[in-house]
Specification:
Mean pLDDT: 93
CATH superfamily: PPM-type phosphatase domain
Helix content: 25-40%
Number of strands: 10
CATH architecture: 4-Layer Sandwich
Low-confidence stretches: none
Largest sheet: 5 strands, antiparallel
Order of helices and strands: EEEHHEEEEHHEEHHHE
Strand order of the largest sheet: 1-10-9-6-7
Radius of gyration: 17 Å
Number of helices: 7
Structural class: alpha+beta
């Protein structure tokens, strides 16, 4: 069965730059506005084939979901499970993880958005001039802060900020957060890797998102601002706006 066209029509802007301390860009993304699918992955630099894992993850996620007639939380979870199984088979068949990645996506389900997250890539919603975080980082630092074992700006939190607790390709399993939101006129959704949101403040990202309605211009400015501010990691921004 061919899936119905999503009710939400999107304009999508994308931009990515290789980090100064990288030999290859380990960020990957697929944007299918007509299908209501935008997905981003950040290959884990601690794994030798992290970039390959990121590209496999976004290709598999978008391809499987584009062919799915039902777009709800269980359907998305099933797709994530299939991607996870493929990555483990490809990059951890002998128990040693050679490739793993984050995954963050927005998926249209009628007039709603499903936000999918595993790792520390992020999704933000800009509404009425206010930037709202729609995802929670799956890092050791975020967990320690959440349970009261560390302060957000403590040395312990800083040391563990890049240590992922949940990610695709983990032989022990990977479960994504899937949440539902409504996209309305004049909203903007930002998907970013930590090469962007790990460098820019929320206030800086808000100003850039408000400065121009063109998502391509905005995505490019976000990435360039992160590099100008001294970021050395791969930096990717995907900006989604309703087109009508």
């Amino acid at each position: 069965m061919t899936p119905p066209s999503p009710a939400v029509r999107w304009l999508v802007g994308t931009h990515t730059l290789l980090g100064a301390r990288r030999d290859t860009n380990m960020d990957a993304f697929v944007a299918l506005p007509a299908d209501g699918i935008v997905v981003l992955a950040d290959g884990m630099g601690s794994t030798r084939r992290g970039g390959e894992a990121a590209w496999l993850a976004v290709d598999q996620f978008a391809g499987l979901l584009a062919g799915t007639a039902v777009r709800d939380e269980p359907a998305v979870a099933t797709v994530v499970a299939a991607v996870q199984e493929r990555l483990v088979a490809e990059f951890a068949a002998d128990g040693a993880v050679t490739g793993a990645t984050t995954l963050c996506a927005v998926v249209a389900d009628a007039e709603d958005l499903l936000i999918v997250n595993l790792g520390d890539s992020r999704c933000h919603l800009l509404r009425d001039g206010v930037l709202l975080g729609l995802t929670t980082d799956h890092t050791v630092a975020a967990h320690l802060v959440a349970v009261g074992a560390a302060e957000p700006d403590s040395p312990l939190a800083r040391r563990t900020a890049n240590h992922l607790r949940r990610y695709l390709g983990n032989p022990a399993g990977a479960t994504a957060d899937v949440t539902r939101h409504r996209l309305v006129a004049n909203d903007a959704v930002l998907l970013s890797t930590d090469g962007v949101h790990g460098v820019l403040t929320d206030a800086q990202m808000t100003d850039i998102l408000l400065a121009d309605p063109d998502p391509d211009v905005t995505a490019r400015r976000l990435v360039q601002a992160a590099v100008t501010a001294g970021g050395t990691d791969d930096a990717t921004a995907l900006v989604v706006r309703p087109s009508g």
